[in-house]
Specification:
Blueprint (H helix, E strand, L loop, with lengths): L3 H7 L5 H7 L7 E3 L5 E3 L1 H7 L6 E7 L9 H14 L4 E5 L4 H5 L7 E2 L2 E4 L1 H5 L5 H21 L6 E6 L3 E3 L9 E3 L10 E3 L1 E3 L4 H8 L3 H9 L2 E5 L4 E3 H4 L2 H6 L8 E5 L4 E4 L14 H10 L2 E5 L4 H16 L5 E6 L1 H7 L4 H6 L4 H19 L5 E6 L6 H13 L3 E5 L1 H4 L5 H12 L15 H13 L3 E4 L1 H12 L7 E4 L19 E10 L4 E6 L18 E2 L5 E2 L3
Parallel strand pairs: 3-16, 3-17, 4-15, 4-16, 8-11, 17-18, 18-19, 20-22, 21-23
Antiparallel strand pairs: 1-2, 2-14, 5-6, 6-14, 7-12, 9-10, 12-13, 14-15, 22-23, 24-25
């Protein structure tokens, strides 16, 4: 059996100019990065503003498990299937981070015969967007420490600097560091730390900005810490927002690539959904909507994280809600949520009892998406070992909630394996009878928003706020930040904030330990449980399996 990267390497791709032509773009509308990837130019984006928007389809999932769900694979396969049905389609995806690529997951550009290519480029340095974000973030860190060193006119309290440095790798040793050691010439020693690049507010701002002017305004509003009086200090007081924006002049432009079946794809921006808002850029999604009749996009992790944040954070900026939501599930993952170990998932044979327990997790995500008044289609990512009895459990669960279910065989068969799913999605869009309805609004306090998400999306009994978090809430209200949405930082593995509580837990509390004002991005982050903004490597990182030969051929990327 061929690996994902071997399949990608054997594929025949169109020149990127031909992919652009499919969308009505001319060679002058793109800036090629080699033969098979390009940036769409700002002049082309400006020209598209008056175009009518196409239909938007969101792909999300149940809570992920080590067995894998295949959300990106399903997104790509669904787009290819819509193309096969004669629909002008674009898939809009997030850029992979080198952290999980080198860590646990390996590559993240789809899989099997439902991938975006060039797979190696997308998973590695691509067009340099991640490096630009890292540089901009760390420029701000350098400016902060230089300001303190050069007299500290803003009276920055070195104990209250909240802005961290970043690197796009999993490196737990950098979570807590001390900078400025080595004497007077190196500045003032202070405690600092690193986040992973995709957790940076710079990434969030890239993914929510409308244009460079909007980006610069957002950069100016980033909170970097407090002064000795406890007042918040913003980037505009340091004056480096112009330089930060300048460094993003290329990174802000969406990246054009293609699927294995030559469906156009926009891959741009990649915040994690467990520690950030988990959606690709508004610019890329908006561009896709102007270029295509149907746009398939994904949100990170499960519907409790990326799905919720797409609805409550991205939709207000995009100004268009999805007309259908696809929730990806597998029998294997349902079994794990039903108590089966990873080893026994593939070797244990039929286990209807476990599927019945695990399907409660899927049902909760269906109910959550239905709360937004959008049609839901369940995509059952199909494996040969799935039995008719196990499949019947999923069908019955979907029928009980009035949603469609379709098989997805796109990993093995590409777009052809997604025809049934595509037809069900088109039917859902055609039969849509209700209008999108958010579950939080600007009139709620930040505390009320957190409690609403916890109860409605997670199924929690309530929220316990630490003393620190309660003090922060009062301070945020005093600063006029009440109307901002909330970005919940929570484990992806459970509906709760305890990663060991699988399935559909009941009678649990969400524990908010602290809050972070991401005023540039335009939301408040609520840190729950023991969630970390700098992941660590596993015992055997995926990087240990990767190599490259003398001809430049990569192996082991996935």
């Amino acid at each position: 059996m061929l690996t994902d990267i071997e399949i990608a390497q054997q594929n025949h791709s169109l020149p990127i100019e031909a992919v652009a032509e499919k969308l009505g773009l001319t060679p002058e509308d793109i800036d090629p990065y080699g033969h098979n990837k390009a940036k769409i130019t700002q002049s082309a984006l400006n020209r598209l503003n008056d175009q009518k928007n196409g239909h938007l389809i969101l792909v999300t999932a149940m809570n992920p498990t080590p067995a894998g769900e295949g959300k990106t694979t399903t997104s790509v396969g669904l787009a290819d299937a819509l193309s096969k049905l004669g629909k002008k389609t674009v898939v809009a995806l997030r850029e992979p981070s080198l952290g999980p690529t080198m860590g646990l997951k390996g590559g993240a550009a789809g899989g099997g015969y439902a991938q975006v290519v060039p797979m190696e480029d997308i998973n590695l340095h691509f067009t340099g967007d991640m490096h630009a974000i890292t540089t901009v973030n760390n420029l701000l860190s350098a400016v902060i420490d230089n300001h303190i060193k050069q007299g500290n006119e803003l009276d920055i309290d070195v104990r209250r600097v909240t802005w961290k440095r970043v690197v796009d790798l999993n490196d737990r040793a950098l979570r807590e560091v001390v900078v400025g050691l080595g004497g007077v010439g190196n500045g003032y020693p202070r405690q600092d730390g690193f986040d992973i690049t995709v957790a940076s507010e710079i990434m969030a701002i890239l993914c929510l900005s409308k244009d460079l002017q909007d980006m610069q305004e957002r950069f100016s509003n980033i909170v970097i810490g407090q002064n000795t009086k406890g007042e918040y200090i913003k980037v505009k007081q340091l004056g480096c927002e112009g330089a930060m924006t300048m460094l993003m002049k290329d990174a802000i432009l969406p990246n054009l690539v293609q699927t294995l079946e030559q469906t156009p794809a926009l891959v741009h921006g990649g915040p994690f959904a467990n520690i950030a808002h988990g959606c690709n850029s508004v610019i890329a999604t908006q561009t896709a909507l102007k270029l295509a009749d149907y746009v398939v996009t994904e949100a990170g992790f499960g519907a409790d994280l990326g799905g919720e944040k797409f609805m409550d954070i991205k939709v207000p900026q995009l100004k268009q809600a999805p007309e259908a939501v696809v929730i990806v599930a597998t029998i294997r993952s349902l079994k794990m949520h039903g108590g089966v170990s990873k080893d026994d998932v593939n070797n244990g044979g039929e286990n209807i009892e476990a599927v019945e327990k695990g399907v409660e997790n899927l049902k909760k995500h269906i109910e959550t998406m239905q709360a937004y008044h959008v049609p839901v289609v369940v995509a059952l990512n199909h494996f040969t070992q799935d039995t008719e009895g196990e499949i019947a459990v999923v069908k019955h669960a979907c029928e009980s909630l009035g949603v469609r279910m379709a098989f997805s065989d796109v990993w093995a068969h590409g777009g052809e394996g997604g025809i049934e799913l595509a037809e069900e999605v088109l039917n859902a869009i055609d039969e849509k009878r209700t209008e999108f309805q958010p579950i939080i609004n600007a009139k709620m306090t930040v505390k009320e928003k957190i409690e609403t998400i916890a109860r409605t999306v997670y199924g929690a009994s309530g929220v316990e706020f630490s003393t620190k978090a309660l003090k922060q809430l009062k301070k945020f209200e005093a600063n006029g930040w009440r109307s901002l949405p909330v970005c919940m930082a929570k484990t992806q593995y459970s509906l709760s904030d305890d990663s060991t509580l699988l399935g559909r837990p009941h009678d649990f509390m969400i524990h908010v330990r602290s809050l972070e004002p991401k005023i540039g991005a335009g939301f408040i982050v609520a840190l729950t449980g023991d969630i970390l903004t700098m992941p660590g490597l596993p015992k055997h990182p995926a990087a240990m399996n990767m190599s490259i030969d003398s001809e430049g051929t990569i192996t082991g990327l996935f």
